[in-house]
Amino acid sequence: MIRIGPGKPAHKMPKKDWKGNSMTKRIPVNCGSPEHAFNRRAFLGGVGGALAATVGLDVLGEPLLANQLQRQQKRVIMLFLSGGASQFETWDPKPGRATGGPFQTIQTSIPGYRICELMPRMATRMHKTAVIRSFSSPNNEHAGRGVTAILSGERNDVGTLRTPSIGCLLARELSQPGSLVPDHVGLYTTYVGFNNNVQVDFASFLGARHEPIHILNGLAPDGNQLPAFLTDRDHRDRETLRDQLAQGFQANRERDATVASHRMAYQRVRGLMDNHRLFDISQEPRTIRDRYGHSLFGQQALVARRLVEAGVPFVRLNRGWWDSHGENFEIHASLVPDLDKVMSALLEDLEQRGLIENTLVVTFAEMGRTPQINAMRGRDHWGRCWSVTLSGCGIRGGVVHGSTNADGTDVAQDRVSTAQFFATIFRAVGIDHQKEYTAPDGRPIMLTPYHTQPVSAVLA
Amino acid sequence: MKYSNILLVVGLVLGSSVTARAQDLLPPDRPISEAIDHYLDAKLRKVNVEPAPQAPSTTLVRRLYLDLAGRIPTPAEARDFPLSKDPFAKGKLIESLLASPEFVRHNAKEFDVMLRNDNPDAGSLRPYLLQVFQENRPWDRIFRDLVGASETANPTKPESFVLKRLKDPDALTRDVASLFFGLNITCAQCHRHPEISSLTQDYFFGMKAFFSYSYDFQGHLLDRQYVKLADFKTKAGETRKASLLFLSGTKIEIDALPDAEMTKAIQAESKVIQEAAKTYAKSKQLPPTPKFRPRTRLAEIALENANREMFARSIVNRLWFRFYGHGLVMRVDQMHAKNEASHPELLQWLTRDFLAHNYDLKRLSEGLVSSRAYARSSEWKGKEPAKDIFAVAVVRPLTPAQWGLSHRLASNPGVLKIGEPAEVRRKALDAIESQLPKMFGNLIEQPREELQIGITESLKLSNDPALLKITGDKLVPALRKLPNARQQIDEAVWAILSRPASPTEFELFGDYLSQRKDRPDDALQHMAWALINSPEFRFNH
Predict the structure, then answer these.
(1) Nearest CB to A255: which of B380, B454, B459?
(2) What is the pTM of this model?
(3) Which of A193, A241, B83, B175 is the most exposed place for a label (fewest CB within 10 A)?
(4) Considering only A22-31, A137-146, A314-323, which range has the smallest mean pLDDT?
(5) Which residues in B lie closer than 8 A to residue A160 (C-beta atoms)?
(6) Chain B within 8 Å of A229 (Cβ-Cβ)?
(7) CA proximity to A387, closest of A358, A359, A360, A416
(8) Are residues B146 and B85 in the same domain?
(9) Residues B293 and B380 grouped into a single domain
(10) Domain end (from B324, B357, B392)
């Protein structure tokens, strides 16, 4: 009699086959020097075991376990200011200049460094954050090739080759063996430009596993909920039936990693659904929820914190829509305080939970905004010089790196490219930014382009 | 314009490093399948590996339907074959599948994906491919059509293979060399090939030069007469002139005009083209065609006696890869002398056979799926054997097209009927396939090496209400009409997995259905879901 019902133990994955598929003969690649050879990453090996089986399961309910499991794992949260936030109204104000706009500046906790008055909370904790004011990229668009390039570290240099986005690379690099939580979650406050922005966040040859689960305009992914016409019991039993079939099929086909990934994909469904509480911020104390605020962005940031706490390695929080071609100052007067509130709350919360040492929080966007204020009191698209920030894991706080000239029309000191910024992110979370993959056409692809140097000044 | 060929003796090693003399190979009159098993068995004996036994006949039938018709068999088709006592049943099934319009459809889809070569600029060539597979056009002619080297115009526009790629000539060069000659020369764009030192940048820019004359005139692929081939810089910093140079070392010398005259000639020609463009809408007049057509020359050189083996080997290996899940040479775009085939004599034999039979793709496909090696089980106990001895069948994920069509057939097994007229079947398949993009979108990934199935697929298939509604939608009502659970289980497993249910499955599903006697529709629906979402359905095994 085969038992059907809930509470079936997770099956141990066969150890051999994930590592297996042993390539007795190295498959030649296009640029076939030995160091280019495709090496299966460690995460494909040794699936199974107690740790693997429990990652993501109920960790929020058991703080002790959460601590044990999650301490060492590094994660990244990217606050992506969709549409392009103005550096003038945030990290690089130019008060009193023609390009400066109406806002005043306030002193931060870094002596001599002032930011826009719209960010009083962040001002008090800037000694824990690093700012790069000399970020520069060729991109001036919301979508298309330029954005594809910027999200994969300025890969214009490799012809038609599609390179994975930073999020997918981090998701892959930081993913845990046997994790039942997703590797990559993308939360969006707005649909504007969404189609295009999603297209560029691709995993390419890394595999679909590392592409984001999208949460649009809400707090939980669509397929996460039990369909209305199914009971939980039915859903579980159905999967038990399926898994029984899978076991039988897999028994003598353990050598095949794709077959194993199929089974893992279904096991992760329950993992994600069983963790529906991950997305349920009503589980959080009132004080915490108030601290994040009740904007969608704030609520999504709280979801992001719950996700990284449960072991999700990469979360991109897309906060839109900053594209202030008209009424730049009104738009920033409304969006910047929200950013200030949410970002400071997130950092503080991560600190209080002991997660900040292993969680890197960065701010990024497609571009910044023009120094010139146009006839509609707006600022237009501007890639030449704008600001990004890094806080937490691996970062030396209180560093203000690089600068722009008096009117903010160009980099004055220490230009930082997208590739360098990404190299810095990889290094901050302990990944060799020159690590090499092999693309399907045999071309070696490093995490960042050749000869890229991280910005060591902001690294701890 | 004058031109001449010069055979360069640079020792470019693109062929096989092991070339057996023709008389040492198995005689050419043997069936393809016999040659395959002859050479594979010899290697297996040599490495002392006992291959997996032949797959059960139901598995083989499913494999053949997926590989040749692009879908699982209907329950009736699946049941038909194992009942047969005819010793020639397998051959007859292969023959009938290859003769069916469904093979034409499926082959067109497979080649369409292959010819795209993951190039985002490439469009679909499906109407053209349907046409040529219908008449079983030889591969050399297809090649001529695709590179725009045919004398006759084709309304399905095969030359759009080149036309669509003109905006990125580097990618076009890569695709032509990879797809037709089995060699990805991308690295020679910037430096010499690391494993074949004689493959210098000259070859990349030499191959590219064949397409440098091409331009898009109102949707027509034309050539200019005057082009100044761009110089390129070597890694050492030297500036070199590109010339038309085929991979074998055959170089086309062109009497180039002196620089100043060339510039004038180019300007004059551009003017003629611009003028023609202005009047084209009314006159439909194309600009004059130069005598020298580089793409036609490329096709001629590639199909010369000295070079055609390289051209043939590439497609033989690619078709082998398609049916066996692992190439005789891996990767399929790294066919050079430093990368030996696992079975060099077999590859040579198959290539000779393919050439002797006029580049007949259908004949080759038939041979490839008729061997004992193709029919092996994919199950293996113990330490796995090396992939390149072909001791056990490779488990292959279904393509989006195979999966989508199979999902609909499994959910609605009555939709195709044995013996229905071809036109009825074509319409039924058209109707199903036209729904697939809307139903499934990009749910299923195109298979590739090291494919990792993602959670998006399983999550949607588990929880998306629209997808759940069409999972077994017509199958469940049909099962309801059957008198008992045993028959329901048996029918569901036939419809979805194309085989009889095992004793374990009768027990598993029997218990399940009896526990839910009060909700038989739900129970049957869940059983269908479990079967359709099982890996046995997701893979060609």
Answers:
(1) B380
(2) 0.79
(3) B83
(4) A22-31
(5) 119-121, 168, 170-171
(6) yes
(7) A416
(8) no
(9) no
(10) B392
